[in-house]
């Protein structure tokens, strides 16, 4: 009989906790790794206090981890902080788990794809990151591809959901800007769908090495912002520059959906509307 998998979620912040809840609901044994436990976590999640930038703290991890979800957040918005967790931390943890580890699912970013002037992008599109974040994540993906086990990178679009409401606040204050011309295409994914996709890829038989995680509806940034402003009763969105170092592109989720994954929120306008209708938002 094949042993039941044992899961470790490294980072285990907002996205990891959502994925942990799904794995626990399916009856799996799940560990969470981070420097300190959060204020609230799913019942049954077993904590391991460790710092990915200090390899010695990883020595007491369980010896039977078979599946790793690597969904970490850097300690700063600079290249050194990114390399500390996405390169050094990832490699140190993988070495520690090597005897039992069968699969790694890596929460990456569509930032690895850079600028495509509104063109469609899928997993076959060569990476061409614009900033250090995309460059470091692309390097981490390349390293994972050299390992003698199953590794899967999920390149996530911009996430939104409960606790990720800064855009709505900026719109309410009239601070958000969006260009008219040239059109800048934006891609989104609800955090619940992103967590479900990560959990799906942890269990998927014979996964591909790379998937793009996004909803079904790329939108011109101005159209998205104005739709949300209308829902909020906020001012019209003023003209302004596109976000820096992101690039305009339309992401395709065809491979992820062909694997059997189903989105709960295929259009971010509906997802945001549900958030806006939630009391206290």
Written description of the protein model:
This protein is of the alpha/beta class. The chain contains 8 helices and 13 strands. The strands form 4 sheets. It has a 7-stranded parallel β-sheet, with helices on both faces. Helix 1 links the parallel strand 1 and strand 2 (29-34). Helix 1 (14-25) packs across helix 5 (191-203). The longest helix is centred in the N-terminal third of the chain and has 19 residues, at 79-97. The protein is globular, with a radius of gyration of 19 Å. It starts with 5 loop residues before the first strand and ends in a 5-residue tail after the last helix.
Can you tell me the residue ranges where pLDDT is under 50 for at least 5 consecutive residues? none
Query: How are helices and strands ordered from N to C?
Result: EHEEEHEEHEEHEEHEEHEHH
Number of strands: 13
Average pLDDT confidence is 94
SSE-based structural type: alpha/beta
Roughly how much helix do the residues carry, as a percent range?
A: 25-40%
Query: For the largest beta sheet, what order do the strands appear in spatially?
Result: 3-2-1-4-5-7-11
Summarize this, please?
With 281 residues, the chain is α/β, with parallel strands linked by helices. It has eight helices and 13 strands. The chain has a seven-stranded parallel β-sheet, sandwiched between helices. A two-stranded parallel ribbon has the order 6-13.
SSE layout:
Layout: E1 6-10, H1 14-25, E2 29-34, E3 46-49, E4 67-70, H2 79-97, E5 103-109, E6 120-121, H3 132-144, E7 150-156, E8 158-160, H4 166-172, E9 185-186, E10 188-190, H5 191-203, E11 210-213, E12 219-220, H6 221-232, E13 250-251, H7 254-258, H8 268-276
Parallel strand pairs: 1-2, 1-4, 2-3, 4-5, 5-7, 6-13, 7-11, 8-10
Antiparallel strand pairs: 9-12
